[in-house]
Fold this protein.
Amino acid sequence: NRKLTSSLSRGFTLIEIMVVVVIIALLAGVSTPLIINKIHDANVASAKAEIKIYQGCIMEHIMKAPLPTEDEGLDVIVKDKCVQRIQKDPWGNEFVYIVEDEAEGLFDICSYGADGNEGGTGKAADICANGSGEDEE
């Protein structure tokens, strides 16, 4: 009985602890990039969904009034009560409203992506939709 008690209370050796730490580090090293990519994909999907809402509100607005100017921007759809407020994009930046051709009623709504600057590639790519309902990236 004494031998059983002493072997149970012995604890872990340094080698056993190091093996466990190495296994945990390997798992973290493999899973972290996958998680980061999934977060980025979710942010892009969220930005696209928000842009679609704003795009629909602008389309509804121009059925009864002129195309908003760039100065009026997306605030028009808040005044129209289509949305309560304009959200920031998933990266904390303002969505951008661009009038492409006022006479034709063409406009873009964009998120400038993770870097918040116009242009960019990869994770910094702009996410835009134009007034015709076509996505652009």
